[in-house]
């Protein structure tokens, strides 16, 4: 089965507690506009529906202010779901409801982390369609990365040291914009992580260099690219998408959710549910990638 083809998404409504009790709310002591945040969430929900995805929507839990950021609670590839162990202890209780849905409703092959010392945020796990990168050093540790490798033995799993990067999660600064196309945020700290990825990667990718983190925040699903509106991305990065992205696009506004660390990808667990287990592979053709910078380690030294 081709990578990035999904038929379900688990999402969770935005709780009122996100306004001022979120892990990411320290920078906004007066809170965020919670009604706008809920509108942003609803827009993304509708966009996902328009991308031919069946939505499983969970009711918000006010005991967990960050429960709407479901991506951190599980890593799902094919029919296997690895239940995460979020690095921030206040979020670890969020996995219970996610586990019930994955195991009971979707009947996934659910894998639990056995090492009690492990921490793992789903936001640190980037699946490229061919292999997996895990950002280690902040919310995810080496034991968490090892759990990913054990859960998905059919894929190469590479750890990259993310401790010195200013971003919190790997997918805050790296995302797939298409099959074999990786969007990369700016900054020397990000470029240092990119060089690590290039050193350990089993496959080459085409790099789309963006000029802000928000411009890098995107989600490729069922042949569609979901990204921020122009005024959030900036004209230059938006123009990059106009030039290089030939597949359908949807733009969403995330001004409020972004204030507390929310990203487009953090709001959904995307699932490829099949009756029989299949390896998820990329079916990109070289002719489709003529616009992009090639993935070459040496380019970083030019």
What order do the helices and strands come in, and which of them pair?
Blueprint: E1 8-12, H1 18-21, H2 34-50, E2 54-58, E3 74-77, E4 80-83, H3 95-105, E5 109-111, E6 125-127, E7 132-136, H4 142-151, E8 157-161, E9 174-178, E10 181-184, H5 188-200, E11 206-209, H6 213-216, E12 218-221, E13 224-228, H7 230-233, H8 235-244, E14 249-252, H9 255-259, E15 269-271, E16 293-294
Parallel strand pairs: 1-2, 4-5, 7-8, 10-11, 13-14
Antiparallel strand pairs: 1-15, 3-4, 6-7, 9-10, 11-16, 12-13
Q: What is the C-alpha radius of gyration, as a whole number of Å? A: 18 Å
Low-confidence stretches: 283-290, 298-302
Question: What letter string, H or E per element, gives the SSE order?
Answer: EHHEEEHEEEHEEEHEHEEHHEHEE
Strand order of the largest sheet: 9-10-11-16
Distance between the first and last residues' Cα? 38 Å
Mean pLDDT: 91
Share of residues in strands: 15-25%
- E-strand count: 16
Report the structural category.
Answer: alpha/beta
Number of helices: 9
**Biggest sheet, open or closed, and with what strands and sense?**
4 strands, mixed
Determine the fraction of residues in helical runs and give it as a percent range: 25-40%
- Shape label: globular
